Known about the structure:
755 residues; alpha+beta; Prim-pol fold; six-stranded antiparallel β-sheet; five-stranded parallel β-sheet; 38% helix; 20% strand; elongated
Amino acid sequence: MPAPASDYTSYRVREALAAYERGWPLMPLRGKIPIETRWNTNPSPSEAEVERWATAGNVGLRTGRKSGVYVLDVDTAKGAVIPGDLPETPTVITGSGGRHYYFKAPALPLGNTTSRLGPHIDTRGDGGQVVYPGSIHPDTGTAYLWAPNLSPDDVELAEIPAWIMDKLTEAKGYAQAALRGELTRVRNACDGERNNVLNRAAFALGQLVGGGQLEEQPVVRALLDATALGIDEAVPTIRSGIEKGKQNPRTPPERPRGGTVLTPGAHIDDKANYIEVGNHTFADSVIRGLPDGRLYHRSHVPGELIGEPGSLAFVPLTGERARLLTDAHVRLGRWVAKKDNESVLVYQNCNRDLAGLITSAAETHPSVREIRFLANYPVYTAAGRVTPGLDPTGVYYDEPPALRDLRPDPQCARDVLEDLVVDFPFRSQADRENFFGLLLTPIVRPMIDGNVPMHLILSSLERTGKTKLAEDVLGGIVIGKPTPAMQLPSTDEERSKAILSLLLRGDTIAHLDNIREFLDSAALASLITAGTYTGRYLGQSKMIDVANLLSLVGTGNNVRATGEMCKRIIPIALQPASDDPQGRSDFVYPDLREHVRQVRRVVLETLLGMVDAWIAAGRPRGTVRLGGFEDWAAIVGGIMQHHGFTAWGSNLREWQRQADPEGEELKAFEAAWWDAFQGAEVSPKELLALAAREDLFLGALSRCHTDAARSAAFGKSVLARNLDRPIGESVIRMRRSGVNRRYYLDRQSDMQDAG
């Protein structure tokens, strides 16, 4: 009913009392602002209070589940355009010429939004309020009025349109899932990459801020809490990333409409399967309904391939993401009782419990295929070169557009590869050819049965090109961008976490940058030698085994290693001609990255041609032997030798001797021990005195300032660490007598004779 032009007070009182009869809670307003400070938690007012407020001035309506009303606020005066159809529902013409569309509040909590549905389109739900009809706009002096024939007396409250529900619920879930994911990456960032990870996270979240999906200040605070960087370093990085992200706004992807409606209880799906919502049969039904190829798993960790063609990454499936995926195909419905004892079907998103069910079922579901190896460069299995897509062996070739129609060319392989690295001062031809073998390793990695050693690019000086060789040349040729680099964490626990993250993400090449001094890591040794890597999954108690097909390259100056680590490493040594490599200017290709970009296709075609020619020749196996990496040495060595690279692997013995001087000391110690005591049992004190007389292990003991400390260090670093290990002609043995330990030598020849 239109309001009398002269009396908005009586109109306001009448409509306010009608609202009271409907059970809609009102409150007094000053203009558009609630007068009461606790208006959102106060009990519903009495009829007398409502009448008094409406007589005195403006009144507002609490929105959301408290009133059962959800309001779409469209400011048409500012050019707002509704991006979808609206049903007939109670509608208010606002005092500024806009519209308030009243809908039934959904059962799930929905708060207030600003411009999420479009420019100048807001929503008011739980925790919100709107100015009620009959009230006067404080700026225009115009009354809020029910639109003609669209008051609650004329039409029923309509359900919120599906497109609004889809956008509101998906936007919230999408943005929150993105926020949690980026914060996790920031928390798990390793030393040396924290600033870059923080910048990337700020940029990604800044895109959502620019798209109206997140508020800026809470994002800044969350990133500051997550990073281990100091505030002086973190704040500029965060601000810069967010500002750049806001310039490239991002909104949630469109979700498919429709889908199957399921209500709690029993159902029969399109394949005549019995479904009870809330069990694994339901989860199976949902997974089968997802688009083909949407879900995969790595070592029973479900996830998706996210990214553009040629740069896909495996992202583990979170509960929130599972909810969004399943809701694209299945919407749940539940019956809600009204005051008149009637029931209505209310649609809602998949809840968290069901999302968890979907996630757990996906781990072993037969239609969720396993990805063992994900590469954006051409690779080979035992059956030959992999075509784009998922190979039956679990190798996924994500072919970039730039690498389509590669034509293998084995001609002039040496000239092409030598020219690629012409500016690098390799110590020997063996070091140069070892790098060529490194270029081949990722390409044939799925073909190799077993593990591959770590390649180590080392030098005695800074600025010799180690990082450029690892990142710009290796990465630029194989993956088309710099090799992902990380600093080796200081503890094995942190190293294990970083390694597991690499493997789950699907990285095929990793660069350990700036390795310092002595290399001795159980986690790293396990990564190099284990076919599967065991670690703790995402901070949970759950342990998982992840297939290990990683090609690892390290860089460092004057790197030494334990004897066991030495055997797991292929050296690539650089030795500049000058003591001042920074002053060098005689480069054939001054712009290395541009050079690599230009020759990438030719080099890849050369490497593929080498592999194809080797396969056509019957796959002759290489003659270099490397314990623990037999298949890798046979395949990569076979390809290299077939094409005349005869120096490959010839410097391994020399590297092991130089990198592990302790091994030579141990041999000298074993000889002196046998000469002094033969096979008799002796105490650690006696052996320490022997080592001192022979001037052995001085470096390891020099930091100890007392006899007790030297004795403890000697027992731990020399005796205990080498117990039962063959050294020279003997094996060190130990016999315990109470708390005392006595050591003796077993000569291998004696043991063989005895056997």
